[in-house]
Amino acid sequence: MRWPRTWCAFALGCLLAGAAPVSAQSAADRDVEAVLQRIQASVERFYARALHVVADVRVRVRPLGRSFRSTGRGRSLLYEMRVEWAEGTDTMAPAPVVTRRLLEANGRPAAPEDEPQCADPEPFSEEPLAIFLPAKRKDYVFTWSGREREAGRETDVLEYRLRHEEAPTIEWEDTCVSIDLPGHTRGRVWADVENGDVLRVDERLTGMFEFPVPRDQRRRGVRSTMAIESSNSTVRYRRVAFSDPDETLLLPASSESMTVWRNAGVARQFILHEISNYRRFVTGARIVGIPRRP
Questions:
Q1: What is the pLDDT of residues 67-90, one digit of tens each?
Q2: Does residue 230 sit in helix, strand or coil?
Q3: I need a labelling partner for 213 at 20 to 30 A (CA). Which of 50, 113, 137, 228 fits?
């Protein structure tokens, strides 16, 4: 089974917003807008440079039991990843997406039958920081939650939610299910107070989501419903130095997620992405990189 990341969240702080005095609320709104402007400027710089960068992504998928012990054979996958701009439509602005090309599966060169399998990353997915671009920001509600230290930096902490909850999307392919739950998650972001650089993004499911299993997908002894009991994810970013010419870019470092299922073939599913070996396109034909880690 597969549950793609939705990046559509509900902010805890908004539940108390109506109780604040008008003057205090207006000041808070101004503070949030100032933080969002810094983040937006940083994200725009990120996308301007990320389009010239490729990286390797090692993905480890581990099925776990209720005791957090492995209950089956996991998968180790190596992808080449880059960020591209998807074409816009009459109703949607162009948006950044992550594209992946599978290179290895379980230590051997990838074959056509290796991609994609259940729980593997899709070839294309939304880039999470896109919610801070003007075209998407209006769809979200952001609340300032305070300041904390993250990765050795002082950060503004924002909580966010999708402004309007949308209907879930459930798609089946054989016994593999893909679920999109816009508005059913809550998110938190840590951004450098000086320059707005996003250092970490967390997201969690707001509550259990249960859904019916179509009759033709049921195996003997399988119940008529499945459920996602909980799901949590974290994405971290780090600064990567390039030379010729010298430049330091803030780029994704890792992401991890844990999803707990009910009445499914696996009780828990842990997925780790480790991103390394960044290379930068400086001309149409030349790539400058940093040494590949063993």
A1: 777 777 788 999 999 888 766 555
A2: strand
A3: 113
> Residue 21: what residue type?
P
Q: Which amino acid makes up residue 81?
A: M
Q: Is 168 helix (H, G, I), strand (E, B) or coil?
A: coil
With a cut of 80, say whether residue 22 has pLDDT above it: no
Give CA 161 to chain center in angstroms. 14
Q: Which pairs count as long-range contacts for 178-184, CB under 8 Å and 24+ apart, including other chains?
A: 178/2, 178/3, 178/4, 179/2, 179/3, 179/4, 179/209, 179/211, 179/228, 180/4, 180/6, 181/3, 181/6, 181/8, 181/205, 181/209, 182/6, 182/8, 183/8, 183/10, 184/6, 184/8, 184/10, 184/209
CA within 13 Å, CB half, 60: 10
CA atoms 48, 51, 54, 57: torsion sign: positive
Res 220 pLDDT > 90:
no
The total of structural domains in the chain comes to 1
Quote the domain boundaries for residue 241. 12-289
Output the DSSP codes for 257-293.
EEEEEESSS-SEEEEEEEEEEEEEE-SSS-EEE-PPP
Residue 74, domain member (yes or no): yes
Residue 2 is given by DSSP the state B
pLDDT at 284 over 70: no
CATH number of the domain that residue 242 is part of: 2.50.20
245 lies in some domain = yes
Candidates 17, 37, 41; CA nearest to 27 is 17
Segment (H or E) for 125 = strand 124-126
Q: Supply the pLDDT for residue 280.
A: 87
Residues with Cβ within 8 Å of 221's Cβ and at least 6 positions away in sequence, in order, are none
In-domain check, residue 7: no
CB 150 within 8 A of CB 189: no
Structure tokens at 118: 């259940």
